[in-house]
Amino acid sequence: MTRLAVVGGGWAGIAAAVAAVDAGAQVTLFEMASRLGGRARAVPGDLPEDELPLDNGQHILIGAYVQTLALMRRVGVVPEQVLRRLPLQLCMPDGSGLVLPAGAAVPAFLRGVLAARGWRLVDRLALLAAASGWALSGFRCDPAWSVERLCRGLPARVREDLIDPLCVAALNTPAAEASATVWLRVLRDALFSGPGSADLLLPSQPLDALLPAPASDWLTASGARLRLGERVHSLQHEGSGWQVADEIFDHVVLASPAAEAARLTAALAPAWSAQAAALRYEPIITVYLHSPGTRLAAPMLALRAGPDAPAQFVMDHGALGAAPGRFAFVVSGAAHWVERGLDATGKAVLRQATQAFAPGTWATAPQLLRVLADKRATFRCTPGLQRPPAAIAPGLVAAGDHVAGPYPSTLEGAVRSGQQAVASLLRAADG
Question: Which residues touch 355 (CB under 8 Å, ≥6 apart)?
Answer without folding.
Answer: 309
